[in-house]
Amino acid sequence: MFTGAKFREKAAESLESSKKTDIPGEIRKFEQVTKSFTELAQNEDWLAQNFNRIIHSHELNSANEAS
């Protein structure tokens, strides 16, 4: 499973790859991939920071069974 740090590492790799080409289509693709990995890293960080506030499916199942 990926962590925020791993996604940032992949984003950095994509950014470096975009610097090694002069083909506009490839540059755009690498920029899109970099953005996606950066957003995934931010999402992972948010989930880690807010894990205790999230409703988990096993909690929903327990609540439904109690009703």
SSE topology:
Layout: H1 4-18, H2 24-50, H3 57-66
Helix pairs in contact: 1-2
What does this molecule look like?
By secondary structure, this protein is mainly alpha-helical. The protein has 3 helices and no strands. Helix 1 packs antiparallel against helix 2. It is elongated, with a radius of gyration of 18 Å. The protein starts with a helix and ends with a helix.
Summed up:
This protein is mainly α and 67 residues long. It has three helices and no strands.
Largest sheet: none
The assigned structural class equals: mainly alpha
Q: What's the order of the H and E elements?
A: HHH
End-to-end Cα distance: 35 Å
Q: How many strand units?
A: 0
- The proportion of residues forming helix, as a percent range, comes to over 70%
- Rg from alpha-carbon coordinates: 18 Å
Beta-strand content bin = under 5%
Outline, from the CA principal axes?
elongated
Question: What value does the average pLDDT take?
Answer: 89
